[in-house]
Structures are given as C-alpha cells and as structure tokens.
Amino acid sequence: MSLLVVGSVALDTVETPFGKVEDCLGGSATYFSTAASFYTPVKLVAVVGQDFPTHHLEFLKERQVDLAGLQVADGRTFRWSGYYEYDLNTAHTRDTQLNVFASFHPALPEGYRDCPFVFLANIDPDLQMEVLKQVRRPRLVALDTMNYWIENKRESLTGAISMVDLVVMNEAEVREFGGSPSLIKAARRILGLGPQFLVIKKGEDGAVMVTPSAYSVAPAYPLEEVRDPTGAGDTFAGGLMGYLARCGEPTLAALRMGMVHGSVLASFTVEDFSLERLKTLTRSQIGERVEEVKSFNCFEEE
Amino acid sequence: MSLLVVGSVALDTVETPFGKVEDCLGGSATYFSTAASFYTPVKLVAVVGQDFPTHHLEFLKERQVDLAGLQVADGRTFRWSGYYEYDLNTAHTRDTQLNVFASFHPALPEGYRDCPFVFLANIDPDLQMEVLKQVRRPRLVALDTMNYWIENKRESLTGAISMVDLVVMNEAEVREFGGSPSLIKAARRILGLGPQFLVIKKGEDGAVMVTPSAYSVAPAYPLEEVRDPTGAGDTFAGGLMGYLARCGEPTLAALRMGMVHGSVLASFTVEDFSLERLKTLTRSQIGERVEEVKSFNCFEEE
Fold first, then answer.
1. Is residue A45 part of a domain?
2. Alpha carbon of B280: minimum distance to chain A alpha carbons (Å)
3. Is residue B80 part of a domain?
C-alpha cells in the first residue's frame, strides 16, 4: 500500500570526527522516503529551491519515489549545517537556513489524498495539521517532532498528536513533552492524548514501543563504526512505516517487526555520510541484518 | 550447583529524590547473594566489623546464604554514603570509609574451594586474584569492577580479567577500560584478553552480551518509578549467576536467559531502598515479570 510523507528535503553540511561533507543531500523526508522505498511506493510532499541539484531528484525517482508533490519554489533550498563530537548521539547545529521552507505550505496532489499510510516528518505542527486536513480516511497516521516544536509550539503540537495513531519521538523528546524524568510515565501521558502507539527511539540502544496494553523492545544493530548519525531517526521511521505499508495492517506484530526493520535501515545510514550507504544498499543486505538481529533474541528457556 | 561470591558487605547511607536511609544494609556481595539465593545456594566471602547488626546476618542466613566465609574483624564495617539526582543513572559519592575492608584478605574455607561457579564482585583486583589462587577448577568464573580500579590498578585488573570466563561491566566501564568510544570495539578488546563472555550493563536500557561469535540483547523491565538504584548492578549479576548455577552449564542459551533473570531481579531492587524489596520478593513474582519481559519480544514475522 502506498505511503505519503511530508517533511523536509535539504542540503546538509555535516562534520563528524570521521570527515566532513558540504551541501550534500539531506532532510527528514529524503531519508524517510529512501528507506521506505525498499518496502513500498512512496509519495513525497516537500519543497526545494531553484538551486536544488537535479541529480538528487533523479536518485529519488530511481527509488520509485513519486515527486508529484514536490514543490520547486523561487529561492534557495533549506540548508542545515551541524557537527558531532565523539558522542555521536548529540547533533550540534551551526546554522539553519529555512530559505524556501519559510513560506512552505504542503499541498497534496489529488492522487495523494487517499494514501492509507501517512507520515508527518519533523516540521512545524501547524503544517502537520494542514496535511491532516487534506488526507481522507487514512489507515494509519504517524508523526515525528523535535525539541524546538515542543518548546515553541506546544499547543499546536498537542493538537496534532491528539489526531494521529502513532507518535515517533526520541527519548529526550518523550521526557520533555511528557514532563517526567520517568520515560514510562511520560510515555503514558502522551498516549493519554489519543495515539494508540508511541515508538521511542533510543539511538544505539534501539527502540521501544509503548501502547496502552503492551510494551515492545527492538534492539539496535551493533556497529563498530558510525561515521555520520544524521538521518538515523528519519531512516528508522522510513523502515518502520515502509514495512507497515507493505504489511497493509498496522497490527502489533507488524509494528514490532517494523521497528526491527527501521533499526536495521538506520544502521546502514549511519555507516556513511548523507545517503551514500542507502544508495548502494540491497534488499538482501537488509534481510541479512534482520536475520542477525533476530539471533540476538534472549528469550529461549533452557 | 553452588555459587561463591567475594565482595563487600556494607552499611550504606543513601539519598535520592524519593527519600533517605542511613546505615542500611548494602554492599556488592549482599545484593549479589540475596538475588542469587532465589536460584541456588550461595557461599559468601566478605568482612564486617564488630558493629555490624546481627539481624542483617540473620536475614542472609534465612536466605540460605552460607556465612562460613564471612570474617568479623575488629573495627567498624565498611561504609558508603552517596546520593542520586533525578538522573538516577549516576551515583554521587559523599563519603567512603573502608574501615575493616582496608586490611581485608579473602580466605576461602576449605568447603568453598570447589565451588563450580565463582563471582568476584567489585573489589581490588589484587584481592580478586587472591581468590582465583584459592579456587580449584571452577566451571565458570565471573568478575565485576569499577572505574576506580580501571584508573588506579589497570595492570592488576588486566591480569584478573585475562583469567576469568565472564566479565560484567557497565557501559562506561567498557568504554573506559577498552579505550574506545565505540562500545563494540571496546568490547572486542576486552574479549581479546581472554574472557569468553562480556556482559554489558546498560541500566534502564537493559544489558547486552558480546562473545567472539554472538551478540545478545536483554531488555530491562520498564518501571514507572525508581526509588533507589543502589545495588542494581550487583543484583543483576546475582540473578544472572544464580540462574547459571541452577542450570549447571554456562551455555549461550543459559547466559541469555540469565540476563533476563538478572534484569528482572534488578527491577525489584530499585523499587525501594536497600534490600527492602528483595526481602518480600517471591519466586512467583520473579516468574511473572520474566514472562512479561518475554512478551516484549519483537521477533515474530508477520
């Protein structure tokens, strides 16, 4: 089943202890679509400027990502510049230039409005709400966010969260939005707003899912070397939602295996800068790591 | 099969955002023995002073912990005083009084020397070596340590690690001793010294085990409230080693399920101060949580 994503397409400048890249392909919707495209057709809604390199568009088209919803606006593409130190869990922002993103309003082509699976990547919650007004009876809507919106648009964000089925956040965001140092307490407060599922991203500790009646744990794939963690969270969400859309029904079992697939996809993304590793990734490589992760299972009684 | 532990028996003064206790029962060997006693008979080697309250000894005896190896020396019992802030992962030490521990040398009663399972809790690695010289052909020897020994007795510690089968450390200790920000790289270096198994404690993110050929992940049991994390790591080790000793053979499957049992035991310890929660714990309560943790399993394909 098809999957709609609304988010950013960006040009990133990233420095880590392992190298530096300038104006490379980035953005939440880019990582998400590329990851999800291994599982299902993806329809993308975003905006780029006149300066956006066409070979990046060609790459997305080759991945069968539908770009009918990608606006090309006058001006420069959204840019993010940041760096990581040896603690690769924390991104330090050097510069954010909204550029064409500053006046962006998502407009869904008619053919997008019946998409059964919808992902609202990390953008202004008011824009996330604009998307929700344009979709018709989706089977599952998921939402990601970030500390900036929690701190500056809490009311809009609370409204958006109350209208979706699945929330994807990292640990710190759950604690901050849920208002408790206890992750589980904070998680219960978020579920209290309406969503059925909360997936908490924990970086190299994997991911957990909390629902009103179940708790699930997906391990991360352990890597000796991480070169650039940019896009790991969006890739995770892309693997999770892509897998769900392929399954067709968002059952608990599908969500659980989806988290494993999301973790595996993210483990590839962080092996290199930008989307370089995803560009050469194959389905069989994904399958091999999924099988490996299954072998980490501790639940066999003696 | 019986299980020998050498470590500390202490009187702790602990403050957390949820309360304070003074001179309560503590010490690595105490938490370890109590946890392990749910699975197997435990023989304890440690030292206390003349001031050690006899009702604590009675408690350990009731738990079938063999105290023949517990020395009662002239002087005061080892005391630790510390506090935790809302980030309960980090213990802040206010005061450490070694007292009778300063001149402690472990002396194994003859009946202890053939114990098949041996745990060297966090003490001076020179004392851990003294124990290794007194045991005869154990089936599995495990060792715990802390940053103090890594920084001040690295050579002795390296020697001790090279002589054991299983190392139990927390994440920060693995990175510090293994000398890499990459947990997996650091883990491989530790395994390179000789041990077959490295179990890495990750607090509320559970535990992972790294061996030369396998990787395993045990989730933590999620709690809404943690009152006092003191002793969680020693309790985890006690559950793990107790389970292994009950199984009799340290197979990979036994180690994996042992990690789950260790996590579950630790989840009880942190619910209250000192060993209060372990005092009222029953085997069926342990079994219920183990079953719950098994239900967190993400590895069912659609």
1. no
2. 24
3. yes
**CATH number where B130 lies:** 3.40.1190.20
Instruction: Find where tokens 């840019």 sit.
Output: A79
Chain B residues with CB inside 8 Å of A87's CB?
A: 181
pLDDT for residue B297 is more than 90: no
Over range B235-248, report the average pLDDT.
98
Q: B110-133 burial, b if ≥16 CB within 10 A, otherwise e?
A: eebeebbbbbbbbbbbebbebbbe
Q: Touching check for A190 and chain B: CB below 8 Å?
A: no
The C-alpha atoms of residue B237 and residue B167 are separated, in whole angstroms, by: 10
Distance CA B63, CA B57 (A): 10
Residues of A in contact with B216 (CB under 8 A): 296-298
Does A225 reach chain B within 8 Å, measured CB to CB?
A: yes
Q: Is A30 helix (H, G, I), strand (E, B) or coil?
A: helix
Supply the mean pLDDT for chain B: 96
Distance from CA of B40 to the nearest CA of A (A): 16
Total of domains in chain A: 1
Contacts of B208 in chain A (CB under 8 A): 219, 222
**ipTM of the complex, rounded to two decimals:** 0.88
> Quick one: pLDDT band at residue B300, thresholds 50, 70, 90?
low
With beta carbons under 8 A apart, name residues in chain A contacting B202. Answer: 205
Q: Where are the beta strands (DSSP E) in chain B?
A: 3-6, 10-16, 19-26, 42-49, 65-73, 79-83, 92-97, 117-120, 140-144, 166-170, 197-201, 207-210, 215-218
Rama region for A57: left / alpha / beta (φ>0; ψ in -120 to 50; rest): alpha
What parts of chain A have a pLDDT lower than 70? 300-302
Which of A188, A206, A297 is opposite residue B297, by nearest beta carbon? A297
A86 at B interface, C-beta within 8 A: yes
**Domain contains A299:** no
Q: Which of A270-279, B57-66, B89-98, B272-281 has the lowest mean pLDDT?
A: B89-98
φ/ψ region of B60 (left if φ > 0, alpha if ψ in -120 to 50, else beta) reads alpha
Find the helix or strand (DSSP H, E) in which B239 lies. Answer: helix B232-247
**Domain range spanning residue B47?**
3-294
Q: What are the tens digits of pLDDT across the range A206-254?
A: 999 999 999 999 999 999 999 999 999 999 999 999 999 999 999 999 9
Burial class (CB in 10 A: 0-12, 13-18, 19+), A213: exposed
- With an 8 Å Cβ cutoff, is A90 touching chain B? no
- B296 → closest Cβ in A88, A217, A222: A217
Decide if B206 and A217 are in contact by the 8 Å CB cutoff: yes
Closest CA to A106 of A46, A157, A152, A170: A46
Instruction: Provide the 10 A C-beta neighbour count for residue B59.
Output: 17
Is A224–B182 a contact, with Cβ atoms under 8 angstroms apart?
yes
Separation CA A210–CA A220 (nearest Å) = 17
- The answer to whether residue A193 sits within a structural domain is yes
